[in-house]
Amino acid sequence: MRLSFLAVASAAAALSLVRAPRAPPCWCAPVTKPRRIFFNRVPKCGSTTLMSLIADAAAEHGFTSLRSPDFTHEHLSRAQRQAFVRFFATSAPPFVFNRHLHFVRFDEFAQNMAPVYMNLVRDPAAIRTSDFYFHRECVCTTRGAWCRTEWHRASPALCNRTIDDFYADMRTPVAMPGRLTAYFCGHEKECALLPTRAYGLGAEPSEGAREPLGASNISATVATAKRHLRDRYLWVGVLEDWEPSLALLSHLLPGFFGKVNVQYWAQQKRLPHGSRPGAKPSAETLAKMRAELAPDYEVYSYARRLLRCKLRSCGLLQPRGAAAAANGDALALVDDDAAQVDVKLLNREASAEHAGDRASAEHAAEHAGATAHARAVGGDDGNGDADAGPSARELRGLPGRALADAGIGH
User: Fold this and answer.
1) Model pTM above 0.70
2) Does the keyword section mention Glycoprotein (predicted)?
């Protein structure tokens, strides 16, 4: 009796979840010679500045900086994800590839092909505000191709509209996952109901309306986003903690960013071409934003805890007093006592989750073994399901059209 390679691999992968110990979430493990880095950049989080830094570092360290021309397709079908993984696997390393794209789990299609993941986050209300004005300027001033379908809406009323105007008619904000949750949740089934595009300008009565998710759906998406953030990403910087974030980036990826002038880049704030800052939201608007973006704030707060925790593990913290004296409270976040608490909390969360994963993995291994046997004798797994992932040959033979459909390019 012969078992298919994919069936055996499925069982082995499930068993590996039981056997492989999970590294502590704050483990300081620099990667000296990464081959491929994926920066699935969250929009409006300061990524323009970071991309400038990456371009400079590429010239200094001899890697390639690749950028997708697709700025609109953030969420991919399974076929498009498969094409994206193939593109990634066949591009010549070393490189950093950046694209506005929800987290892609490479091991869905190919083992031992996962890149080093990195990202940058920002206060959700600041993301929302920046998004609003960037959209407004596209329609009214820059006339970017990505908002071409809305050019006809340009008018004095729309082009003078502020973020406060947008929220003025909102009485009771409904909590809804936004950019941060969607980008880190990725393409798991619980993430499918998340919005794939940001709010528009709110000038038309129906615009911006979204069906609220149930509390259990929101909880599941936030939990997945936090798990990916913790377990999959080597580095997630925080724009509000830009200088310590850069110090950690340089430390964790010395072969790519070890020569970065942290002090210089900490002072840089570069806007996308054609952007200009808009009016800041009022206190009332901010309160509505925080209520509406509560799921994103949970993910954002978790990212800050992880940052602080990793800084401590890597020996990059300063005591609060020294940091405040040297930087005028710029590094007040990275307080050593608070970081010690974060280490304990994060490790406790990871341990509890791993205990649950172990039970699930044991069940998955049993199911995978039964599936392997059924397929070996010419049947399926009883559910009529096909193999979950392609073989290496299938990946290599993926048609070029699928790559085009995935919006892949340098």
Assistant:
1) yes
2) yes
